[in-house]
Input
Amino acid sequence: MAKKSKRPASCYKKPPKHAYTRTAKKVVKKAFVRGVPNVTIFHFDMGSSGKKYKYVVKLISKNAVQVRHNALEATRIVVNRTLQKTIGLENYHFQIRIYPHHVMRENAIISGAGADRLQTGMKHAFGKPIGKAARVKRNQAMMTIKVNTKANTEKARQAFKKIVAKLPTACAIVVEELKK
Output
């Protein structure tokens, strides 16, 4: 049986009014959301975190949006690999500043021959959990890279430019000097 493809990001990028985050805990009371898939992001801090850095490069969202956890993982891999090759593991500290808490739901509708007998349409359209998303506010820093030299800030900017197409919003890249 073929694996079902993901819906496009445009279906989930606009944040609904309220976050849907409550998941089951080890308590007697039952929680609202069941069967939520795990987040695919394993590392939120990469590089050398114990050092003092002079510059910070921020990736800032221009709009309020939701970013899926698999998009965050794809961007994390590209940025971290680019920084390791160009700057070196000991010369940067890369952080993902957002966490995917919001549970996304999908009312799966079957299409094709004979599908009219297998579904209820919009009768019970609550939907099943299909993944998680991070809710990002307007002008919020989604990711930061700390570096020591001006030349490395340009390499960090280039790493962020590579991932802008993987995110569902327009982004700004800002370089700031850290105060001592």
